[in-house]
Every structure is written in C-alpha cells, then in structure tokens.
Amino acid sequence: xxxxxxxxxxxxxxxxxxxxxxxxxxxxxxxxxxxxxxxxxxxxxxxxxxxxxxxxxxxxxxxxxxxxxxxxxxxxxxxxxxxxxxxxxxxxxxxxxxxxxxxxxxxxxxxxxxxxxxxxxxxxxxxxxxxxxxxxxxxxxxxxxxxxxxxxxxxxxxxxxxxxxxxxxxxxxxxxxxxxxxxxxxxxxxxxxxxxxxxxxxxxxxxxxxxxxxxxxxxxxxxxxxxxxxxxxxxxxxxxxxxxxxxxxxxxxxxxxxxxxxxxxxxxxxxx
Length: 272
Description:
Blueprint: H1 6-19, E1 24-29, H2 30-33, H3 37-41, E2 74-81, E3 92-93, H4 99-118, E4 123-125, H5 137-143, E5 148-149, E6 155-156, E7 164-171, H6 192-196, H7 226-239, E8 242-243, E9 252-255, H8 260-264
Antiparallel strand pairs: 1-2, 2-7, 3-9, 4-7, 5-6, 8-9
C-alpha cells in the first residue's frame, strides 16, 4: 500500500493529538534533538540527576544521560494547558501522580494506539523521567515548535506562556519537523519571572565564562540554579499537610509545588 505524503501524515497526527486531549502538539527530528542543549550538556553538569523530580535510575545510565529507543526517528511533543485557575492539575496526593499527568499519559497512550493501528507507525510512549528512559521534554517541545526556552528556564508558548505540562513519544518514521518557530518574547521582557522567585534561583550567573555557558541555556544566560530552585520544592514538601481526600482510606499529604515564575509571566496570561 502506498504511504501518504509525510506532510499529510504530520498534519493528521497534529489534528488527532488535539482530538485526544493535547492543547499543543508538534514534531521534532531525533537527529536534530540529539545535539540540542540538554541532551548534549546535561550529563556534564555537576547536579545532573539530583533533586526533587529525579528518580533512581533503572537503566544503568550515567546521570543526565538519555537512551533513545531503537529506530526512533521523530518525536511527537504534546502539551496540556495548566492555567493558574486549575492548580490541582499539579498537586501530588501522597505518591499519587497529579491529575495533569494522567491527562498527558492518556493522550499519549491514545495517540500511540491510533498511530500503530491506523498509520502503521511504531511508537514508544516515553516515561517522564530521563533516568527511566525518557528524554528532555523542554528541548523537544522547542524543537517541535511549541515555544521557546524562556529566561525562567521553562518552555514559553505563545498561547499559554510557561503554564503547560509536557509529554513525548517517539516514532519510527522520519516526518517533517514543525519547529523551531520564530518566537521570543523574553528578549525585551523585564524578567518578571526572575524577580518572582522566592529562592532567588536566577540571581547568580553560574556559567559565566564556563564551557557549558550558552546564550539560551540554562535560563538563557547561565543564571538558573536548579539546586537553589530545589530548595523551594523541598520547602513545599515539608509544608505539605495531611488532609482527608476522597478515594483515600487515610489522610494524605497534598504537595503544592511553587509556580511563582510561571504565574509572573505575562505571555498567554489573560489576567496580565
């Protein structure tokens, strides 16, 4: 059977992903992603694989190292909107994954099943954690055309600013990339995000005159400190209170991680 033109396949994937629950979706080339900043430099950083959000590796990988699935040629990056009005999408109830993660996982699962059944494309639904076989989602989203890396070291999208959550899957077919795009609202911004950080994680330029310093990573100017940011997340963990919640037999701690830099960004925020 003759395969449809790659451009038509891409267009169909983008439309179907949104039908399944994605607010934003794009496609990136694995060949180009391999040399993207996080993939190339993260394993060389002293704090790679450390802090809240990291996991004990199960694949014998070095800290920060990515192991690509076999035959992966393209990456589909998906995002769901996480507005300030729906904070519960990112709340942790004990060790139960936030509801926003479930939306992303369900969307990716449906898309994988559809791609294999209807398009004869083999897929891998990637786990969130690099240590478990995932990839760097921010770089993937930027290369797929969802937005740019902002001065808060997050993906800033035209539609929602940095208030999105990301997921990805790989395809065994080379498809036309949908990014990157010419979008950079941070160039002339007075950096509301950095001023809002309660731990001042952007105050010190960690990578000045350093071989890892790049104009756009980390935090575009080398100012972002993940260990400092992690202090606030640890504080959020410590302040979490046990509460009775429907569906749990006993009270659970509800952890509400800091999103100050997200909320401060005026891009895609109708309240600013």
